[in-house]
């Protein structure tokens, strides 16, 4: 009880200092809990949607995906004959069965040719209105579609695009373009996360999506009373045989959820990773806080020891304070985490993904994890200062000697840090000289961890040297005030090293990712300049936005073009000369002019020969693995066609970026073995303008593509800009997440300075008494803060650039050979660090300036 009372008294006596540390714990716990609540809520939303929209059993064509989405590269969904519906109805235990047809390989536009699709990346779905949809949706205005000129739209899409009854829309598919007017608007009875859904009557949907009637993509089956889904599936399978895909509602929901989960897991673990970084930075803050508080209470600890308190009791007292701090910060963090989750839901809503707070899910494990993490991390961080407090002898403390300096421990620390840093440097060197990216990535990971820990351990030694250099460059121009700021930073190198290390971690990651991102853009741009020999690239905004036949004709008819190249992807398995059968491979089928559009390096043969009849190319690695040489014959088993025996006429180099690992054949060759109705749509098209007509052809292509806004045309400048923007957006998102760690590091600088001011109260009073003005005092503290921040920035940026340069060496093995240091970003971060130091010093400097001189001198 005495230990608890002492801890409570000390905790409340330093509540301002504790508050800053609690904020660090709060932010870290909030990020973890917010991530968990957000992903749990998304799971709940999708679970409800999938459960509500699934029939008891669903029958699909054999070629359809588990989630029922269109997977065929022909742009048409896999279908089953209408006779299947009758067979299903005759199966035992079936209450009802209804055929439906839908597709996601569509583009829907309004009368102004603006695309009516989600901005969140969710699919656009066009399907037939059926009983299962009527069960899960409510028509809020108008009527369901009853003829070829009518279409019904979901309420969310209607609201986003201001669609009203009678508005004209067009559905663009592989079959053609269908025009209709909005006859009704229907709202989901559960939350629709963001898909845009359009309903046609069944016959119109069949003609529009498939090109013929009498077929369906799915059959929705409902069970009779008392029949389980599993039993119904068994009965339906028995009635149909094994030529179809039969799934229960749970299996469909699980397959859909698996797709969603893969996206959520990437987001979840990325955000948790950044929360972990924030926790790591927070550890430095907590260690510094308790180390300084222990140092300030040296005499108090001595008195406690003198009147009988044991080392364990002193140790326990400090740990109880840490426990109180951890509990307070974690409890507040859990609450803040729910707020972050709601904020993320609102943000996703702005991006087009609808998430309702009615589905907000806070599992009991979320606060439990938050509390456990916050408390454990805080107590562990306070353990070393607590142990140090317990070692203070009563007599040394009463003499105000404080914790004895341990020169031996400092030497051990320096040697350990040097060994870790040297070992990490060796790992990075090994990674940079590796022959394979997979092997090198393991060494890179070890090198990053070892050098990071090494720099943290060796921080005090680095601080003693670097701060002197920074003092000579930055602080000496401020005269005596600058020299005093330098000495203050050097007074406790361990503290300066720990404070700088907290800032170092976040900035090291920023520098590393900046180098990697810039190098990727520079390498890809270099490859484009060297290999791409066409003027324009036409492709869909999303991978599933294939180029439909009517658009192919428009592109080919565009004036001012010298040549147009089609480019398709086909799935096939290969039987190689060594007798092995490979799994699904991709054959890149293109017109013979593709060799002019892409200058691909070969290690054997001429790529133009691969476009001869019954010929192909393979890539270097595949050829080595299977003993393939020029003239070898490979049996290509096309999934949608017959088997072709093709002769290898070229072997392409693995040292490329564009189309790395591609196997080429001509479209004419492929067409001999794949029926026309199963031939994939074009994934890409390439166009080259006649000399001097580039600008006019570019404008004409853009005009032609207005009929399908899901397609874009880019010249090489556009393509490079799009690549740079994509990587830039990803980096900006990562920088935003790393800002959490940097905020915690700034709190650490504030806390260190604030406690340092309290620690030097008497000293500050004496300096003020002998003539130091308030302005000079504040400047001294600001300069001390700046030099600590710049010290952390130098360590972080230097370390991060080393990591980034090593990572680029591994990327070079994949063809990205250009190393580019983004000096504007590095310089901006470095200068920004100085401003961070100024900002962090504002409150401590202000409080120091307000200090009463006489009271400060009288402080014991």
From TrEMBL:
Compositional bias per record (Polar residues), positions renumbered to this chain? 57-74
Bilayer disposition of the protein: Multi-pass membrane protein
Q: According to the lineage, what is the superkingdom?
A: Bacteria
User: Locate the ABC3 transporter permease C-terminal domain: which residues?
Assistant: 274-394, 737-852
The record lists the membrane-crossing segments as 269-295, 318-344, 364-386, 407-431, 443-475, 496-517, 733-758, 783-805, 825-846
> What is any Pfam family matched here?
FtsX
Question: Where in the numbering of this chain does the MacB-like periplasmic core domain appear?
Answer: 19-238, 499-700
Q: Name one GO molecular function term.
A: transmembrane transporter activity
**Is Transmembrane helix one of the keywords?**
yes
| Ranges for region Disordered | 57-80
Q: Does the keyword Acetylation apply?
A: no
Tell me its family: Belongs to the ABC-4 integral membrane protein family.
User: What name has this protein been given in UniProt?
Assistant: ABC transporter permease
Q: Which organism is it from?
A: Streptomyces corchorusii (Streptomyces chibaensis)
